[in-house]
Amino acid sequence: MTEEAPLPSERRARLIARVRETGSARVSDLSRVLGVTPVTVRRDLALLVADGTLEKVHGGARIPARASGIGAHTGASTGIALPDATSAGGVDQPTIGMVVPSLDYYWPEVIRGARGAAQGAARLILRGASYDVDQVRRQVAALVGDDGGPGVDGLLVAPPVEGPEATELGEWLAGLSLPVVLMERHLAAGPYREPLESVATDHALGAGTAVRHLAERGHRRVGLVASRTSPHTTAVRRGFLAVADELGLDVALDLGTLPVSDAGWAGEAASVLDQCTAAGATALLVHSDREAISLVEQAQERGVRIPADLAVVAYDDEVAGLADPPLTAVRPPRAAIGAGAVELLTRRLGIAGAEADGGNGGDLATGAGADRPVHRIELSPRLIVRASSAFRG
């Protein structure tokens, strides 16, 4: 005989009883005890937190200390002490999961920005993934906590964005029962292709700024060399071509290359320089720093003078200033990306900026934030001028 599922009111009564028995309870524990999905538990918590019956804590809920004085704080029926929200460990602070594709290039500064913004407001849990859809999904799933993970309150993610698998990943992220903010990415989901919340660099603007700089230096035949594996290349190319066309410059070459870490890079770099010479290009925008530095080194070995014969602007400015000569570079605001993403997420969770949102920060259990519009923030990169693009002559 199949056991009949309890009515929602009965289920919520059992949920409250469980929280009273244990002092506080996690979503994963409540899901197991009640025999329902974590999504159902989170929905119940949303209602119970909204009416003041429960209080949201990291990964679960507790009976509010204010509900019935000392009895509530001690767990009422059991006398088990509840965690103090003001004690060390910040039990009332949300936990933010952060998934980035790399821990050794570009992203460390984004992470530092996020960590600084989260200081005192949220706990940050970091996971390194890759540009692989399946690995990003595994890392996010581990953070969400339905299978006993940490059960984060919100997510910062930099997922792949191209191809059908990336589209499916975007749909899955949008369907999670907690808020998600994308970093340096744009994705849309649902039947109306509604965008996910995001903080990103305007890479097209950055590339266009580099082209304007080269034109100011007197260059009329310019070229673009961009990594085929970078998710920023599409925007960099768009900005480069748009401004070159606006200024009437000749695009002598527009090449996609392997990353410098690939075994085939040496041969590809030689081919790039051959094509640059054949096309008569006098200036290049190279994405990213590592490829730019390698191209400069190989060009110098051929007797090409930088910048007298060939000006070079790098894109990313991770290590461009350490080259010989130091490379002019476009610098995305990496730390501000991380900080801005944390700020968006904490506002969505309702723990910061409540006044700016009209006092309604959204549902703490689900992160719905129904009255807050989706924010898509674009930050401008900076051009850092160095010796590799000095005036010709």
TrEMBL record:
Q: Which organism is it from?
A: Promicromonospora soli
Q: What PANTHER family does its record include? A: ALANINE RACEMASE, LACI-RELATED TRANSCRIPTIONAL REPRESSOR
Query: What's the name of the protein?
Result: LacI family transcriptional regulator
Keyword DNA damage assigned: no
Q: Which gene encodes it?
A: lacI
SMART domains according to UniProt: HTH_DEOR
Specify whether Transcription is a keyword of the entry. yes
Q: Which GO terms describe its molecular function?
A: DNA-binding transcription factor activity; transcription cis-regulatory region binding
What are the HTH deoR-type domain coordinates in residue numbering?
Answer: 8-63
Record InterPro entries: DeoR_HTH, LacI/GalR-like_sensor, Peripla_BP_I, Tscrpt_reg_HTH_DeoR_CS, WH-like_DNA-bd_sf, WH_DNA-bd_sf
Keywords in alphabetical order, please: DNA-binding, Transcription, Transcription regulation
Hey, what's the signal peptide range on this chain?
A: none
